[in-house]
Amino acid sequence: MAITKAKKSEILATLEAHLKTSTSVAFTTNTGLTALDVTTMKKELRAQHTTFMLAKKTLMCIAFKNVFNVDLNIDTLPGQVAIIISQGDKVAGLAVVNKYTKEWAKEQKMKFVGGFFD
Question: Would you say residue 22 lies in a domain?
Fold first, then answer.
């Protein structure tokens, strides 16, 4: 389903707001995650002041350019990608995601494909 221009602007604004206060950012593939998987993981991430978002890669690139003046190479980000943005401890949120990555390794639901630290 196509996303309207207004919705894209809203997502971009949200991404930029999170990135402005971020201490670290990571990218993961997320093939086969269920709504329950995401909800469970997000609950743990909120406790670590970390956000898990899905957005179009082009919007991620625009947000990175606007906030950090960095050009993301989306060719290195395969398929559908999620962005994990930590606002507190740089690695606490990523440790939570890493726990789930290991738990779901057999099903290959999620794996890290990149990261960005200040």
Answer: yes
Domain range for 24? 9-117
In a domain? residue 2: no
Q: Is residue 3 part of a domain?
A: no
Quick: pLDDT tens for 58-99. Answer: 999 999 999 999 888 888 888 889 999 999 899 999 999 999
SS3 category, 80: coil
Q: How far apart are CA 107 and CA 73, in angstroms?
A: 27
Say if CB 49 and CB 18 are below 8 A apart: no
Q: Count CB atoms within 10 A of the CB of residue 86.
A: 26
